[in-house]
Amino acid sequence: MRILIVEDSQRLRDSLSDGLRSAGYAVDAVGDGRQGLIYARATDYDLIILDMMLPVMDGLTVLNEYRSAHGQSPVLILSARDRVEHRVEGLRGGADDYLVKPFDFDELLARVEALCRRAKGREANTIEIRGVTLDLASQTIRYEDEELVLAPREFSMLRYLMINAGRTISRMELEEHVYDSNRQVWSNAVDSSIAAIRRVLREARAPNLIRTRRGMGYQIDTEQLKESAPR
Amino acid sequence: MKSISRTLLTLIAVGLIVTVSLAGIATYLSAARSLRDQLDEHLVERAETFAELVVQERGHVQFDFDGDLDEDTIGALLDVVDVTGDFVARSPAWPETMGTRPVLVGSSTRLSSVTVDGEPARMVTMTHEASIDPDEPQVWAAPPAMVQTRVIVRTASVDETIASVGQSLLLGGVIAVVGSLLCVWFGVRRGLTPLSRVRDGLASVDAQRIEPIEWSPEPPIELRPITAAVNDVLRRLKHAMERERRFTDAAAHELRTPIAELRSLTDVASKWPDGERQRAAIAEAQSIAKEMEAIVECLLDAARGQTNEESVEPVALGLVVEKELSRASARAEARGLSLGMSCVNGASWTAPLAAVERIVRNLVDNSIEYTCPGGSIEVDITEQRGRTTMRIQNGPVSLSPEDAASAFEPFWRSDKSRESRSHVGMGLTIVDTLARSIGVEREVEVTPEQAFRVTLMQSRH
Questions:
Q1: Which of A8, A19, A82 sits opposite B267 (nearest CB)?
Q2: Are residues B282 and B372 in the same domain?
Q3: What residue ranges of chain A have pLDDT lower than 50?
Q4: Confidence (pLDDT) at B102
Q5: For the domain that residue B86 is a member of, what is the CATH number?
Q6: Same domain for B343 and B358?
Q7: Which end of chain A has fewer beta carbons closer than 10 Å to its terminal beta carbon, N or C?
Q8: CATH of domain A126-228
Q9: Binning pLDDT at 50, 70 and 90, where does residue B419 land?
Q10: Touching check for B249 and chain A: CB below 8 Å?
Q11: Does residue B321 sit in helix, strand or coil?
Q12: CATH code of B280's domain
């Protein structure tokens, strides 16, 4: 899942990027509104975290222009302005959620997860495919009560594939949603990560969920796919 | 009395009642007098008619009338007596109480009020000479005899007429007063309706969103100064509230952003503990704490004003400016800014030294921060007509002339996002507060040449 942070405070930008990357998200972060709009238009982000008071172009203008250009990514406004009219203005301007600074990082994470989940049209917090369960709340993957330990990048990749189960995901799409723009993506990086995921699944005696669609990308086998209720 | 309508109604009612009563009384008296005068005139005319009937024939005085002299026939009571007191003619019902002996000296006519059978009446007493027939033979010729003719007319009918007039006037007066009071009551209510609209208008003012009131329909001329004053107050309140709101927004941003940074840093560091990350978080947290301390200090400085009456003294402006420019010279040089000053000898402000130093320091720091590289900062100190003026001009700057109006506002920065953390936008606010506290007038402008100019003036006391 790839997130864009548009925040003028360098420290907040850095700590948010750090925290979200640690939570398994790919993060791009920019410090002014114009750059934020350029990034948002250029990439199909799973979520945009947007400050309101930004240099060059304020957050509301960024939001309006993004929505005017049919940008579909969910937008979470992160602002120090806490009055009701500010929230109303932001939400009516096209934002999907509004969080007032200062905030609890866990709350931010929960909102990020909820927004990403809703954007994919799902209600549940967990996805189970042939005994392999992805818990979006705790950011864990289990097979028959055993937690599968994956590196953050592999976790993000498997999560993206499971969320989009049944659909063939191209390497480019995977790169776009799993790697942030600051990372150099080697040509076989996606294949290496897929191989690592398959190895972990194999070691846990879990079924190999990922099917390679030659020349097209990867797909999670949808047979026996089912979603469980939220925990 | 607290009610305007009640006061107006009471005053107008009392005025009306007094006026109508006085007018009624005057009309009544006038009518009564007029009726009585007419009665008297009529009485005198009748007495004269009767007097002409008193004739002297062959030396004897006679009343030349053949008919009855009773009251029903002649419409009055008549009594004619000669000089000896013998009556010449008399109505049968003539009251005996009137029978006094006359004193007949010269002609006269006298009117008086009398009572006949217990009823009011008017009496005319006429003393005159009896008429002599011109054909009277000389043998009987004698000087005309003096006689007294008295005529009494009962006045009961006239008194009834007068009483009737009085009653009509009273009834008319009451109707006029009541009718007028109703009209006045209605008029006062109508007249005071605009006051109710003013009250409703004021009641509709939302404390959270103050706006001048749209008076519709427009209030009457008498109330327009009041409604205009109300709207003026509301406009000033709105301006003050907007200023307050801007300050709150800015303060919220200035204080919440570092708190958000702090929380985010510490949350991430504790959620994913890592030696390097935690060390970096601690260092950043210390840096944030210092920045927040600076913000709080600025706010407190602005709130306190930092003036101490006891330490007020003449402060040589030239020395203070020189010292501050010297302190800032390295930073100015690093940004390629040129510094310059001119000062007339002995120019001074009467103020606490610390306040003047803080004003100059903030202005110089502000100039260095916001002047584009390669620009200049000039300080001029002049004295004219008892005023000592310090003008600091720096440029070019990336400001528009409209920005000048906001320059003294708390947390205002030309960079709307407040991205720069080296300044919090309180420097000029503190200058404004301090200058105000030491009686220095302030002007700010952005010139067409993109120079930012602050002019501070103190008059000699």
A1: A19
A2: no
A3: 224-231
A4: 66
A5: 3.30.450
A6: yes
A7: C
A8: 1.10.10.10
A9: low
A10: yes
A11: helix
A12: 1.10.287
One-letter amino acid of B84: T
Distance CA B107, CA B48 (A): 12
The chain A residue lying nearest B278, using CA atoms, is: A15
Tens digits of residue pLDDT in B55-65: 888 778 888 88
Q: Are B10 and B158 contained in the same domain?
A: yes
Q: In the structure, what pLDDT confidence band is assigned to residue B66 with cuts at 50, 70 and 90?
A: confident
pLDDT band at B138 (very low <50, low <70, confident <90, very high): low
Model pLDDT, residue A145: 82
Rounded mean pLDDT of B207-222? 82
| Closest CA of chain B from A60, distance in Å | 13
Helix, coil or strand: residue A72: coil
Ordered by start, the domain boundaries in chain A are: 2-119, 126-228
Helices B224-271 and B156-203 cross at an angle (nearest 10°) of 20
Which residue range is the domain that position B328 belongs to?
308-459
Same structural domain, B74 and B115: yes
Residues B61, B54: contact at Cβ < 8 Å? yes
Could you tell me which residues of chain A have a Cβ less than 8 Å from any Cβ in chain B? 8-9, 11-12, 15-16, 18-19, 22, 31-32, 53-56, 58, 80-82, 100-106
* pLDDT digit string, tens, across residues B363-373: 998 899 889 99
- Could you say which of B237, B271, B302 is where a domain stops? B302
Closest CA to B307 of B354, B361, B357, B349: B354
The verdict on residue B191 lying in a domain is no
Q: Are residues B312 and B269 in the same domain?
A: no
**pTM over 0.80, yes/no:** no
The answer to whether the beta carbons of residues B81 and B147 sit under 8 Å apart is yes
Residue B388: Cβ-neighbour burial (10 angstroms; 0-12, 13-18, 19+): buried
A2-119 folds as Rossmann fold (3.40.50)
Token pair 């990308």 is found at: A217
Same domain, B233 and B131: no
CB contact under 8 A, B257 and A81: no
